[in-house]
Amino acid sequence: MDYRLGKIYKIYTARSPHIYIGSTTQPLPHCLYNMRKDNVRQLLALGGTRIELIQRVACDSKDELNCTLVAVRADYIARGLTVISKLPDATTQLTPIICDCGKTTSKSHIGRHIKSAHHIAYLQTVANTIQYAVVLIYRNTNITPPANLITSVD
Ligand SMILES: [Zn+2]
User: Fold this and answer.
1) What's the 135 CA to ligand 1 centre distance in angstroms?
2) Which one of 62, 106, 138, 147 is most buried, by most CB atoms within 10 A?
3) 88 alpha carbon to ligand 1 midpoint, in Å?
4) 153 C-alpha vs ligand 1 centroid, how far in Å?
């Protein structure tokens, strides 16, 4: 998916007060004919259904596109319109999470985040600190360290 091609669109018909607002990276007509969501199919069944671009959103990720989608829907709802599309999981998926490493991520990004160089560097720091602490404990007691404990931490 090329999220630089992100778009927010609406599907509506004069025969219903209900509006569907969605996001896509695909051309819009393609979008209308491939709609499998029940609430959109109900609008299509009424006839006279139109799809219209609300805004283009050149972004880097699905999360970013979803954030805009949530904002646009909220705006339509605030104007008293009946938006039938459900909020994407974005509301929970996008809630910021501050990782122990200090970086801000989100539920939908955490899987990728924990593989990032920044997070791995943080884990290495934690591992080094723990190892150093363990070595100090052995040095300050008469307990014999396990043979596989690396003691060259100085
Ligand atoms: Zn992290």
Assistant:
1) 26
2) 62
3) 25
4) 25
